[in-house]
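Section 5: illustrative case.
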């Protein structure tokens, strides 16, 4: 019996260790279950938030997740129209709390103020008021899960903003297109009706004026329809380019003549600065003519009455982006206007389809296609285009074409050859 008792006593430390191990395993299992439960909250949020149709719905999903964590919170959503402040309960000092969120929105990602934790993203800030400081493990898990959760919220809000922007751009395009079509059509019908009704009552000079206005309206419609047709060709990859040796300087004069009536109507001065440079290279004459007309039309539209548009060749600065290796000689032409200019940060986006500068999208007209087509034409010529501010006020458009001599042109540049854009 004593031997058995001694044996039992000898096993006691092993049993004790086993019990300790089982307790640790149980604690770990419970922690894993809790962690999985918290992770389930995040997964559930991601599943539901990506079906949210607006910003407020995303904020409500954030509150739902915080309640699942047992936490009290406030959310500030920052959208294009302004800030949306949402709180899970009303209390004194709520306005000051949102002012606090606004002040810290760009100061950092995560701030801890005792039981308060603030997490910032570009479009959303979340303030948690009762973080479990007495539970360090849970405190850390919540912060990690909140970061993942707000990453999802940020992505969804960006998608909602992008969708709203696309809808707005489409609506503006349709409104502008209706206006652009209606205006010249109204002029054509009005002057033709006046001319018809007064056919035997007015002199030839007056009739000539009516016909001139009809011609202007018809040309404006033709330009608009050409833009729409070219957009269709560009998007389908069916735009053809016939590359021939041409003189870009001679083409400038032709482009100015095409828009002479618009220039006269606005009493503008167009200055073509002479150059000693060789301005002959290979390009599609009709496409580059259209490019010049689009750039001139843009300059005319936004240049105040009586101001000046300058056109000149620049031998020193090309439109090639900075940092790119200059592997070819370029012929660079600049079009300066004295209009509203281009806001900082919009130098690239104004070439996007249907886009207009924020300074000029309030009534100047246009469909937002002209500069997009210009960029596509330049790209098809392996050239470059850039928009900047004009040092004298207004906008400056600079485009560069590769200088190709006759010796460097292969059979693909034959005058009868057609080159696909893509």
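Designed sequence:
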């Amino acid at each position: 019996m004593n031997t058995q008792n001694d044996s039992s006593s000898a096993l006691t430390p092993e049993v004790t260790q086993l019990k300790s191990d089982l307790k640790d395993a149980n604690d770990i299992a419970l922690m894993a279950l809790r962690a999985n439960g918290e992770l389930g909250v995040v997964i559930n949020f991601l599943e539901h938030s990506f079906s949210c149709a607006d910003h407020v719905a995303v904020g409500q999903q954030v509150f739902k997740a915080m309640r699942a964590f047992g936490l009290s919170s406030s959310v500030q959503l920052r959208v294009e129209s302004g800030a949306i402040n949402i709180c899970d309960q009303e209390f004194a000092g709520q306005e000051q709390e949102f002012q606090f969120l606004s002040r810290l929105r760009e100061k950092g990602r995560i701030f801890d103020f005792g039981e308060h934790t603030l997490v910032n993203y570009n479009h959303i800030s979340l303030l948690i008021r009762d973080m479990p400081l007495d539970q360090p493990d849970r405190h850390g898990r919540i912060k990690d899960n909140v970061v993942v959760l707000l990453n999802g919220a940020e992505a969804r809000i960006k998608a909602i903003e992008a969708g709203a922007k696309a809808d707005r751009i489409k609506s503006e395009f349709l409104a502008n297109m209706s206006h652009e079509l209606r205006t010249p059509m109204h002029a054509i019908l009005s002057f033709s009706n006046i001319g018809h009704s007064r056919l035997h009552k007015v002199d030839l000079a007056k009739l000539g004026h009516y016909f001139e206005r009809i011609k202007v309206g018809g040309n404006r419609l033709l330009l608009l329809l050409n833009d729409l047709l070219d957009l269709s060709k560009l998007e389908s990859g069916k735009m053809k380019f016939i590359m021939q040796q041409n003189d870009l300087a001679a083409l400038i004069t032709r482009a100015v003549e095409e828009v002479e009536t618009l220039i006269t109507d606005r009493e503008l001065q167009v200055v073509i600065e002479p150059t000693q440079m060789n301005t002959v290279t290979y390009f599609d004459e009709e496409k580059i003519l259209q490019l010049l007309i689009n750039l001139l039309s843009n300059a005319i539209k936004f240049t105040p009455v009586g101001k000046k548009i300058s056109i000149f060749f620049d031998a020193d600065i090309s439109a090639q982006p900075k940092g790119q290796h200059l592997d070819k000689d370029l012929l660079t032409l600049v079009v300066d206007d004295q209009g509203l200019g281009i806001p900082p940060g919009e130098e690239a986006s104004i070439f996007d389809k249907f886009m207009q500068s924020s300074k000029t999208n309030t009534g100047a007209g246009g469909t937002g296609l002209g500069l997009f087509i210009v960029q596509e034409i330049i790209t098809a010529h392996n050239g470059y285009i850039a928009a900047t501010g004009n040092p004298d006020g207004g906008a400056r458009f600079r485009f560069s074409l590769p200088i190709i001599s006759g010796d460097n042109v292969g059979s693909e540049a034959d005058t009868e050859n057609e080159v696909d854009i893509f």
